[in-house]
Amino acid sequence: MGEWPHPATGGGRAVVVLDVNETLSDMAPLGRRFADLGLDPALARAWFAGVLRDGFALTAAGGDARFAAIAEAELRRLLDAAAPGHDAGAAVAHVLGGFATLGVHPDVPGGIAALADAGHRVVTLSNGAAAVAERLLAEAGVRDRVEACLSVEAAGAWKPARAAYLHAARACGVAPGDMTMVAVHPWDIDGAVRAGLRTVWISRDGAAYPPHFRPPGRTARGLDALAPLES
Amino acid sequence: MGEWPHPATGGGRAVVVLDVNETLSDMAPLGRRFADLGLDPALARAWFAGVLRDGFALTAAGGDARFAAIAEAELRRLLDAAAPGHDAGAAVAHVLGGFATLGVHPDVPGGIAALADAGHRVVTLSNGAAAVAERLLAEAGVRDRVEACLSVEAAGAWKPARAAYLHAARACGVAPGDMTMVAVHPWDIDGAVRAGLRTVWISRDGAAYPPHFRPPGRTARGLDALAPLES
Fold first, then answer.
1. Quick one: which of A116, A188, B127, B160 has the fewest CB in 10 Å?
2. Closest CB to A81 among B56, B186, B207
3. The dihedral formed by the CA atoms of A91, A96, A98 and A101, expressed in degrees to the nearest 10
4. How high is the ipTM of this complex?
5. pLDDT tens per residue, range A25-76
6. How many CB atoms are located within 10 Å of the residue A222 CB?
7. Contact A214, A189 (CB under 8 A)
């Protein structure tokens, strides 16, 4: 990764680390892809929970796998169970095609621009491939406001393992305490807290934070309510 | 834990380690509890996937929490999202009440009896409380065929972390390689393989094994198709 072109702009402001899936992307259209197949739209949430369950299981057991590989296998399993005898290949392609065309939440473009305008370095850190974040940001018109799209693929462990956050800190050349993790998933906040990062939990629907996870430093309703973060 | 009363019976046969939730218990009635509330029965599967996702996340991040605590918090979150404004306390109690009254799959009582008759020491190892397994086995009439009901609560890490399986090996006084993990969940098989145990994957519906997990030593359609396991 090259040097950030405006290293002096931030005046010591935290590096903002944005999660990608659901934090940036709006997954609601995925439910419609299941409905297109005559299936329960709620399967979309069960699918994503199952992908994380399997990825976290591998991380806990000391293994590793690509997000896309687990996503496809878990989708195939779920479709086989929900609609035995269907054309599995076409159904899998239809849902994965939906995943590849998701857009960002309305608060994302302005929120990222405001963070960059306030002098923050902004990066993404995903359990998925960096290419997903690259596409999302480019289509939202804010790719040039984001320094780097990072993936845990280079860390050998998924978030919320400590190694994933330390990989991002190394890639940015800062200490974990100089980073602020911004995410919708409580498990991501918990892992970031344990790894020494500051945290902002994005709760667009105002849901309660689960008590079994370490709490966020701050809660906000959207990315556009963040800037500037205190140093 | 006391000594197994018949240490010589087995003649060196593997200690059989049974997973509990879904491997022993039939979770299908949980869907009806959601339907009773006017909700999608598919939420039952999403709930269980979410509980495992959060528990594994904590394990991967170096934290720990009780299964029952996560189960209740995740259920509350899910019900709040699915039916805003409902009587959350009563709904949570109705579903958790269903969890507390689940029975075992039809192949379980005969399967456990056959394993014990073949000279295997049989234990359970759950991410949940040992009391859940105690009740399931007692009501199925096979509690006296099982040496001990173990929980990861004493290990400080959930399966599929290595520490959970090594806890069971220590509790049984055998090497990991002298144990055979029997489970319906591929993530449990994967973790047991990595920890050095032998494995049997129970696939009651004949589903395919996910390629991102290490494969089982053997696959069976039910617990009644196991005994005797080779030494």
1. A116
2. B207
3. -150
4. 0.92
5. 999 999 999 999 888 888 898 899 999 999 999 999 999 999 999 999 999 9
6. 15
7. yes
- Distance between CA A192 and CA B13 in Å, rounded? 45
Compute the nearest-CA separation of B230 from chain A (Å).
26
Task: Pick from B56, B59, B70, B127 the residue to mutate for testing the A interface (most A CBs within 10 Å).
Answer: B56
- The answer to whether the Cβ–Cβ distance between B187 and A157 falls below 8 Å is no
Reduce the DSSP state of residue B36 to 3 states and report it.
helix
CB distance A53–B53 less than 8 Å?
yes
Judged by CB atoms closer than 8 Å, whether chains meet at A63 and B205 is answered as no
Q: Residue A2: what pLDDT?
A: 40
- Note the pLDDT tens digit of each residue in A114-172: 999 999 999 999 999 999 999 999 999 999 999 999 999 999 999 999 999 999 999 99
Flag if A210 and B42 touch (Cβ within 8 Å): no
Q: Do B80 and A56 touch (CB under 8 A)?
A: no
Residue with tokens 């359609």: B221
